[in-house]
Design goal:
Layout (H helix, E strand, L loop, with lengths): L7 E7 L8 H9 L3 E9 L10 H6 L3 E4 L9 H16 L4 E5 L6 H9 L3 E6 L5 H5 L3 E4 L4 H8 L3 H8 L5 H14 L6 E2 H11 L13 H6 L5 E7 L6 E7 L2
Parallel strand pairs: 1-2, 1-4, 2-3, 4-5, 5-6
Antiparallel strand pairs: 7-9, 8-9
Helix pairs in contact: 8-9
């Protein structure tokens, strides 16, 4: 079985529903999951609204797919992307797909690809409808990917900090507690890496960066009122196994 970072991925981008400002950040994020063997972007390249994409396509070797808008109100780009995805699926040369869009029209496609045992990663804006998010194995918000965050911070640090991060509310705390209960040993301790994997299965758009933390460990440490942390030696230099427990 292939390791995650050895997976061959098909990256399909909907130019009509995604900003081009952080394409490098998106591709860097995708590289954490595997190698983007196929990189295609779909849009009507005769329209000025997608002209900003063109320099990024050359810099990152992304193949543009021309799709004319035949009629008003119909998104031909979605259809072209879906047809290509199914062709790639049946070629059986790809281990997973990255669908870059904020459009719920790709919900059924994501579901179909997962039914074929393919990894499906979604990338889109926070306005993305929930059905598409939960249809993916993992969903990543563009707003938390490096370049866009930095650019926004320069506008108004205080305002952006309030808009950018999700609130750690009672619902999220309960998600953590229930997930710890699901995998804890007899003493109540849960291995943090397993906890992160389980939460991602329950909530595909979970990412510590949504709450202002780079990793899960500092996020849990910030919640000392609710959880205990135990760092145990792993037998390897500079590597510790981290366990978490619900406070009584």
């Amino acid at each position: 079985m292939k390791e995650q970072n050895d997976l061959n991925l098909a990256v399909l981008i909907d130019a009509d529903n995604i900003p081009y400002s952080n394409i490098k950040g998106m591709l860097d994020e995708i590289a954490k999951f595997g190698t983007p063997s196929i990189k295609r972007i779909y849009g009507d390249w005769t329209r000025p609204t997608v002209s900003g994409w063109k320099p990024a396509l050359l810099e990152h070797a992304i193949t543009p797919i021309q799709q004319y808008s035949y009629t008003t109100g119909k998104n031909a780009t979605d259809s072209a992307m879906i047809i290509d995805a199914m062709d790639i699926l049946h070629s059986d040369k790809i281990d997973g797909f990255c669908l870059v869009s904020s459009d719920s029209d790709f919900t059924r496609l994501a579901t179909r690809l997962r039914e074929s045992s393919k990894l499906v990663i979604g990338i889109g804006e926070k306005k993305t409808p929930n059905p598409f998010i939960v249809a993916c194995d993992k969903f990543i918000y563009i707003e938390i990917i490096g370049g866009k965050q930095i650019a926004e911070k320069k506008k108004n640090d205080t305002q952006i900090e309030q808009q950018k991060f999700d609130k750690i509310d009672r619902k999220f705390i309960n998600l953590l507690k229930n997930s710890i209960d699901d995998i804890a040993d007899d003493d109540g301790w849960a291995f943090l890496a397993e906890l992160g994997s389980l939460i991602n299965k329950k909530k595909p758009d979970f990412d510590p960066r949504n709450y202002g933390f780079n990793k899960l460990t500092p996020l849990i440490k910030s919640l000392q009122k609710h959880f205990e942390i135990d760092e145990r030696e792993s037998g390897k230099r500079n590597i510790k196994h981290i366990f978490v427990k619900i406070k009584d």
